[in-house]
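chain below, 184 aa
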Amino acid sequence: MEQAMTRENAIARLCDWYTGYFDVTRHETPQAYLEAECDFHVHSDKYVLTKKAKLWEANSHEYVFLFSVPHLTQAIYEACEKLAYERGMEKIEPGPTHMYSYISAIIVCDTCDEAARRALKKCRIYKSFRLSYWGWMDFHTGLVELNTQKAVANRSGKSAAQMLETTLFHKQAKKFFKRREKIL
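prediction:
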């Protein structure tokens, strides 16, 4: 019989997945359920003959905040959303070369209230900087409920829900992580 996945195992798997592309910072003592922060930065530019003759330049960023909550209520969800939004906005530096930034709040929980799930799905936070000339920010949310083995997200975070499903609950992912745990 297969063991049920714990929140600690789920956070560890997600951190392993994000480590491939993101700078992952795990917190020794969780701050308001915040277990880890993952940052991703891309710089693109185009020039002609020399780097001084630059045609364009663009910076893109993604900030992911991983939360671990035993039972998710609407009040806890709103606190996690607020913390992720505030920390993410502190990291964004809008300017002429800023293209976009995504802020994602991923919550791993054992159980969840229906009101919290509805609030997470309804979340729509979008901000443009100087009429989008200095880029924009989009807020993604994702929820993993371990008891039901389901992942949900808001409209902007559909790709996050797919990643959560395949990383945590897909049979191939389970086999991969079992083999990896044996090696380690």
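The longest helix spans residues 74-91. The beta strands are 23-31, 34-47, 54-72, 98-112, 126-128, 136-145, 150-153.
thats it, cya
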